Amino acid sequence: MIRVLVSAVALTLSASAIAQDARTVVDALDRTIVIPTQVERITILDPLAALEAALSMGIVPTQIGQRSFVAKYLGDPLLQWPWLEQALVELGADPLRMNADETDLEMVALGEPDLILGGDWWVESAEEQLTVLAPTVAVPIVDVRSTIELYGDVFGMQERAREVIENWDSRIESELRLLTPASATLALIRTDEAGTITIFNASGHGAYDYFQQAGYTTPPEILDLPVNIGGYASGVSLERIDLLASADVIVVLGFSVEETEQLLADPIFLTLPAVSEGRVVTIGQGPVAQATAVQSPLNFDILLEMAKEVAAAAAKAN
Fold it and tell me: Is the pLDDT of residue 13 over 80?
């Protein structure tokens, strides 16, 4: 069951209910935006931090975007992930839906927004045209925490923003961190091309940061690797698989299905203690992968189920 962190007070923040004194905010593109005094129609361009943060706070959009690749997992290119759909239902929201593979200006115009919210990429790609339609606030694409804080300023809901973050942090401390075996080490890898793996060893990637937050440590030999991918990982050949030997648990981001199957069956990989002792957890593309990339109060429970599996595997280590 997904627990949505909205309150009875937040439920009043419907499309016709957000009135405020005029205010200005500095958004994720470092622009100063004047927020309307009466906001009745809110368009959210994309389904990442912009939407996760809004629904976490009980802010009801009248128009939302979704990327078409979700049809592979949800059967409909305009459906949101289950925790977002549940939040929309609990908030009594029935927004217009549009494709968010890129900013669709015609659809945004049909939504007749008073305020537009969106990840900085979506906003930057059509900034001039969007600002003609309505004041437009750019938010960090996947940083829900910072977006909640920004929305607190946008809507004059600073107290609500603090409440949501405090509740979220409380669950992290009282539920997530308590799962992790004491002093457990974790190696996070991703399969990309046959014969190579990406080993995560620095902050900046959602899954890596999640397991650090959960209380796992990264083996020192992995931390010593040069960070040469995205500012948070190192690419190595499969011949260096021994770097994973000391990890209590190995988590594989198996987004490339064929390459992941090859890795899991590779004789070199099978020699690792974590592999032979059943201490490997694979995360494929889909809801859990999405939740690790864009962590929020709304997807806390789906990640917690995955964390339980990882903790059980780590607990098998001697």
Answer: no
Q: Which amino acid is at 169?
A: D
Count each helix (H run) and each strand (E run) in the chain, helices first: 16, 14
For 215-264, give the secondary structure using H, E and C.
CCECCHHHHCCCCCECCCEEEEEHHHHHHHCCCCEEEEEECCHHHHHHHH
Name 64's Cβ contacts closer than 8 Å, sequence gap at least 6. Answer: 43, 44, 47, 51, 80, 95, 96, 97, 98
CA separation for the pair 141, 114 (Å, rounded): 21
- Residue 241 tokens read as 């698989």
Does 162 share its domain with 25? yes
Q: How far apart are CA 111 and CA 121, in angstroms?
A: 20
Q: Over pLDDT 90: what percentage of the chain?
A: 90
Signed CA dihedral, 186, 187, 189, 194: sign only? negative
Q: Are 65 and 46 in contact (CB under 8 A)?
A: yes
User: Could you give the CA distance from residue 124 to residue 146 in angstroms, rounded to a whole number?
Assistant: 18
Q: Which domain holds residue 167?
A: 10-175
Dist. CA 97–CA 108, nearest whole Å: 10
User: Which pLDDT band, with edges at 50, 70 and 90, does 12 fall under?
Assistant: very low
pLDDT tens per residue across span 101-122 = 999 999 999 999 999 999 999 9
CATH number at residue 188: 3.40.50.1980
Phi-psi region of 73 (alpha: psi -120 to 50; beta: other; left: phi over 0): alpha
Look at the pTM and tell me if it is higher than 0.85. Answer: yes
- Higher-pLDDT residue of 19, 311: 311
Q: Are residues 109 and 251 in the same domain?
A: no
Q: To 10 degrees, the CA torsion angle through 7, 53, 302, 263?
A: 180
Tens of pLDDT, residue by residue over 45-80, are 999 999 999 999 999 999 999 999 999 999 999 999
User: Distance of alpha carbon 157 from its chain centroid, rounded?
Assistant: 22
Residue 66 falls within a domain, yes or no?
A: yes
